[in-house]
Design goal:
This protein has 545 residues and is α+β, with helices and mostly antiparallel strands. The chain has 18 helices and 16 strands. α3 packs antiparallel against α6, α14 packs antiparallel against α16 and α16 packs antiparallel against α17. The relative contact order is 0.09.
């Protein structure tokens, strides 16, 4: 443009713009680092039916009648649902399921004596089993998980979910691991080839090493303690992890898994980061079929997978085999992962020809030969190491630990913060921002909630049973409890007033305003009776006079 031409003329030398184009961007998804929980947060995959109440408490049930897989003892021939008979013999599945009446109170007491522990306040089970053979977990696992504050997933494992973050280099002080420990893990030299002696030297991350969130470290430490208790108290074997704090997990193996796949990838913990992400090599994320565009994946201790995962627990329904470690990949081959990770450029410095070529807006294929891509290294023996980078940072976690989106509570607060920012930034049209928020967020939510109200179910306050239509008796047919709506008028209207205020304040288009007016008309016609008018006592007396 003219300003740049003027600067070049005065300088007498070519001065290039920092950027030819700038684009705006919106946050796609907030960061996450939290344990994986199923609905009702169970500790054990043991059915308690309705006897466990709304919280499905195993230690709150007495005698329950539930459907489970029938097994037969190979020693005494007794019919049972347990993997091990009371006589000590092994049981085998008979190929069918049956209804068992279980004295849960006695089972819990026996498990408490066997483990030699004090029962926690709550041990949550499940209402019923959805696997093909309906095989339950043993109650002892649920007791130990509850003691350690852990939760079970549908396959018997305990997981921690985090947002993916690609990383190729790190400094020891960034991950909280000392130099001597890193040397024992194979990091004897920094990325330039000098011996590793200080915690501020830059190391190249190995493809299957991971640096999870500190929150993940705390949770996995509890999982490790649970596994040790399981080995010692239930199986009579020596403990394996001996973990007292998260740092003790350094060097131990984990399994990473994406929700839409059935193949886990093994990794090794080398430290922890003070952020809500899981840092790992691009190869590791690509092996999980991820491209790090805001995805979140689960991390599990490998021994937890090997000990507690079972195909017997997998739900027999569509999608039941997704998000399960049915296969575990022990090695990552760059030739077998997604091409996106192979398009990674690993130069230490971009050539001048590359910058000059960008002024012509070429197709990326025209300049890729100027770059050093991982794809060009396949089969050369240099596809795993020797990666470069163009910019160093003081600390890889030197950024806000929690985004404003998560810090701000109510939607109104988030909206005000977004629009306050839009008003301050000269390049942003606040009216357009308001219009987009209404059209892409408020209106779809409003219409979706209205649709949900018209198709809603009814829920029993006692046993939580849901009905598509209210029974003729007007109450729950299972326990006689009161039935309530699951979607209320308030949930439909909650975004209507903020959207209308937004539309008026920022003068959005007439079309958007009319859509809001139409929606309000729909809602009023559904909930307001024109023949019945709300009135006050004063108005009543005025009318009678």
């Amino acid at each position: 443009g003219e300003p740049m031409d003027a600067v070049q003329k005065m300088a007498g030398i070519p001065i290039m713009p920092k950027s030819l184009h700038r684009i705006g961007a919106r946050m796609g998804r907030p960061e996450k680092a939290a344990e994986r929980k199923m609905k009702a947060s169970p500790h054990v995959l043991f059915p308690v039916g309705m006897a466990g109440g709304r919280e499905r408490l195993v230690n709150g049930a007495q005698n329950v009648t539930v459907e489970m897989g029938e097994r037969k003892c190979e020693r005494c021939g007794k019919r049972t649902y347990k993997a091990k008979c009371e006589c000590g013999g092994h049981t085998s599945f008979t190929g069918k399921t049956d209804t068992f009446t279980v004295a849960v109170e006695n089972e819990v007491r026996n498990a408490e004596i066997k483990l030699n522990v004090h029962l926690p306040e709550k041990i949550k089970g499940v209402i019923g089993l959805f696997s093909k053979n309906k095989t339950p977990e043993c109650i002892e696992k649920g007791i130990l998980r509850a003691i350690h504050g852990l939760y079970v997933f549908k396959d018997g494992t305990s997981r921690f979910d985090m947002t993916n973050m690609p990383l190729t280099h790190f400094k020891p002080y960034e991950i909280g691991t000392d130099v001597e420990t890193l040397k024992t893990l194979g990091y004897t030299h920094d990325y330039t080839g000098n011996p590793l002696e200080r915690d501020d030297q830059i190391c190249e991350l190995k493809p299957q090493d991971v640096i999870p969130s500190k929150k993940c470290g705390e949770y996995l430490a509890k999982v490790a303690q649970f596994i040790d208790d399981l080995l010692v108290k239930l199986y009579g074997l020596p403990a394996y992890y001996h973990v007292e704090k998260p740092e003790d997990l350094t060097g131990h193996l984990v399994a990473g898994l994406s929700p839409h796949t059935s193949a886990a990838v093994t990794g090794r913990i080398i430290g922890f980061i003070d952020a809500s992400v899981c840092c790992a090599h691009p190869f590791f994320h690509a092996a999980k079929r991820r491209n790090c565009d805001g995805d979140e994946d689960g991390l599990m201790l490998l021994l937890d997978v090997l000990m507690n995962f079972s195909r017997e627990y997998i739900p027999e329904k569509r999608g039941g085999k997704m998000d399960l470690p049915l296969v575990i990949a022990t090695r990552i081959s760059p030739s077998e992962i997604d091409k996106e990770a192979l398009n990674l450029d690993v130069l230490h410095r971009y050539p001048l020809e590359f910058y000059r070529k960008t002024l012509e807006y070429p197709h990326p294929k025209e300049v890729e030969k100027m770059m050093d891509l991982v794809a060009f290294r396949i089969g050369t023996g240099q596809e795993y190491t020797g990666f470069g980078f163009t910019h160093d940072v003081t600390h890889i976690a030197d950024a806000p630990k929690i985004s404003s989106y998560k810090l701000l509570g109510k939607m109104e607060e988030k909206l005000q913060a977004q629009l306050a920012l839009a008003i301050k930034i000269r390049a942003v049209d606040e009216s357009d921002v308001a219009s987009r928020v209404i059209q892409t967020h408020f209106l779809p939510d409003l219409m979706g909630n209205l649709r949900a109200f018209t198709r809603q179910q009814f829920r029993c306050v006692k046993c939580n049973t849901k009905y598509r239509r209210v029974p003729l008796t007007g109450k729950c047919t299972k326990c006689g409890g009161k039935l309530l709506l699951t979607v209320y008028e308030k949930s439909i209207r909650k975004y209507l007033e903020p959207a209308q205020q937004l539309a008026e304040k920022f003068n959005v288009s007439s079309y958007t305003k009319q859509r809001l007016m139409l929606f309000e008309t729909f809602v009023n016609s559904l909930f307001k009776n024109d023949k019945v008018e709300d009135t006050t006592l004063d108005k009543f007396f005025q009318h009678t006079k």
